[in-house]
Design brief:
Length: 591
């Protein structure tokens, strides 16, 4: 016990749990939609891509008086959209809702929530932001072992003062509460996290960006539980990449944001939030409607093929329309808002030669992460939060969605009237062999993928003497159409940008050396440093600011809120900067 008489468990339970309204010290206030500025001549913008980045750029530009047209190959919302399951509607109901992967909007997001507040939604004082609902816990579902459940409690006390000792106590208490790891391994992990928290930006960029998370944690020397829970589990939950190759800077950066969110520092809300309806209903469709009211035009089914460089500027974008006809699009400015694997195919030799950072994007990597939804004939909430099937070979995470969709009676609103729940699952590992067929996900047919994922979930949930998932309750499933498998040539048209060591050095800025070409997307370098909707949103704001600078506009610049940094730790980071320059390790680094 410390001088205040509180135990370490009491510290995390009382002060470091999910903060309630009184504890959210950095919480943004409600923001009304901005009034659109008067349009001006010579201010047309072609936004190439209609995902979160593209829609954010269109939103900010339209409110500043620009004439914007968005060109999107598939559907507005990109990977964030929900979609109709073909042939699933009966009796006047809506089709069953499918999606690329479930939406997860943690409280440490600050820029995306600001945008959500500025999208009008009927009956909501804070627009689409009021459609966010909080989870109360998270589960690590083990196979043949006790499942681990971490509750998120609402507290009203102000956050603690963060001395290094307080950080260590909070971290230790957090992992003592749910991990059941040996005390010396918890202590070591807490120390490693403190090392990162007190590392200066130079050390983070030069050293930790080049260090794999697995190596940073010395995971190879630790127990299997340490490896599964802290090395692999955290990377799967936070950055959806492999611990053995993931950049420590990226993983720890986001763990730091999540940890401060737990303490109620710099947060917009609770750590685990989802939408209260299918994504298009709760967010994307109202967003598109609002943008149309601002004069934004949309061209869906239009795919970018090339950018033409003339006189040092982009003179046109070459696209194919929904019928496959070639189209030439001209504008004063172009915002490339496509995922990196698609955007870089539109940069020809002349465009790349004009800005070397575009060529470096060829080194950026993507991987498969795709969702599958299981529709059940009985409510199966499991718990009010996300489930990490931590021992599953295919790195499965899931959430029961119908419990969050307040005001929507699932059987009455969707499908054929017999579906009562939707279990939405993300599959992150497509190259490891499963437990049912002994094949990788890429080697399976679509039906084999569904059966394998269902079997892996049952292995983690039905091993406690209680049948959580019943085969008899499984109505149907939906696997995203971007995945093409079962033909010997697996492809995925909607991959996830990942973060192996050294990735940061090849990420471009929002402004390019071509004065009328700007970049937005989760691969663009932002303070968020992670492939997220928050990163896409922040990058679009940066692109709009760069465009405003380029034209000498007097319009208000987009606010870009950086990740929270505890001011109490700033002196330790300044000390670490001196130590780094002298070639010394961090003062808390025990090796």
């Amino acid at each position: 016990m410390d001088g205040t008489g509180s135990t370490r468990r009491g510290f995390i339970g009382g002060a470091a749990a999910v903060a309630g309204t009184a504890a959210l010290t950095g919480r943004a206030t409600a923001a009304a939609p901005r009034r659109r500025a008067a349009p001006s001549a010579g201010r047309t913008v072609a936004v190439l891509g209609g995902g979160v980045a593209g829609l954010t750029a269109a939103h900010e530009l339209a409110e500043r008086g620009f004439k914007v047209t968005v060109y999107e190959k598939k559907a507005l919302g990109g990977k964030a959209r929900s979609m109709d399951v073909p042939g699933s509607a009966r009796g006047g109901r809506k089709p069953l809702p499918g999606e690329h992967g479930f939406r997860f909007i943690p409280g440490w997001y600050r820029n995306l929530p600001d945008t959500l507040r500025r999208i009008p939604f009927p009956g909501n004082a804070n627009g689409c932001h009021d459609n966010l609902v909080s989870s109360s816990e998270v589960m690590l579902a083990r196979i043949g072992k006790e499942d681990i459940r971490l509750p998120f409690q609402i507290v009203g006390s102000p956050p603690p003062v963060l001395t290094p000792d307080a950080v260590l106590r909070a971290l230790t208490a957090l992992f003592e509460t749910f991990s059941k790891l040996p005390a010396h391994e918890i202590a070591y992990f807490a120390n490693r996290v403190l090392v990162f928290f007190t590392s200066c930006d130079k050390r983070r960029l030069d050293t930790w960006e080049r260090t794999p998370w697995w190596e940073f944690l010395k995971a190879a020397k630790m127990s299997e539980n340490y490896q599964q829970l802290l090395a692999i589990g955290i990377t799967r939950n936070i950055v959806a990449t492999k611990a053995e190759v993931a950049s420590t800077k990226t993983v720890a950066n986001c763990f730091e944001a999540f940890f401060y969110n737990l303490l109620g520092r710099g947060a917009d809300g609770q750590p685990d939030r989802v939408l209260n309806a299918p994504t298009n209903e709760a967010w994307i469709d109202p967003w598109a409607a609002y943008l149309r009211s601002l004069g934004v035009e949309f061209r869906t089914g239009w795919a970018v093929q090339d950018l033409t460089l003339a006189g040092g500027r982009i003179s046109e974008a070459v696209l194919t329309d929904e019928r496959g006809a070639r189209r030439s699009v001209t504008a004063d400015h172009f915002v490339s808002a496509m995922p990196v694997e698609h955007a870089r195919t539109t940069w020809n030799k002349a465009v790349r030669a004009a800005d070397p950072q575009l060529a470096r994007c060829d080194k950026l990597e993507t991987d498969w992460m795709t969702g599958i939804q299981f529709y059940l004939t009985e409510p199966t909430p499991i718990l009010r939060g996300h489930i990490n099937h931590i021992d599953s070979p295919w790195s499965i995470t899931a959430v029961g969605q119908a419990q969050y969709w307040t005001g929507r009676d699932f059987p009455r609103h969707y499908g054929d009237g017999t579906v009562a729940d939707c279990l939405s699952v993300d599959v992150s590992e497509w190259g490891r062999r499963g437990i049912l067929y002994g094949k990788t996900a890429k080697e399976c047919t679509r039906e084999e993928v569904a059966r394998e994922v269902w079997a892996q979930m049952k292995a983690g949930l039905n091993d406690t003497g209680r049948t959580v998932l019943r085969d008899a309750a499984l109505h149907s499933w939906f696997l995203g159409p971007a995945v093409v498998i079962g033909n010997g040539r697996p492809t995925n048209d909607e991959q996830l940008f990942i973060h192996p060591t050294g990735t940061w050095y090849n990420r471009p800025t929002a402004h390019t050396a071509i004065p009328n070409l700007f970049l937005s997307g989760d691969y663009v370098a932002t303070d968020v440093d992670l492939a997220t909707m928050e990163g896409a949103n922040a990058s679009a704001r940066a692109a709009v600011n760069a465009l405003l600078d380029a034209v000498g506009s007097g319009a208000e610049r987009c606010a870009i809120t950086p990740l929270y940094r505890a001011p109490e730790l700033a002196p330790f980071k300044r000390d670490d900067e001196i130590r780094y320059r002298l070639g010394l390790r961090n003062a808390f680094d025990l090796g």
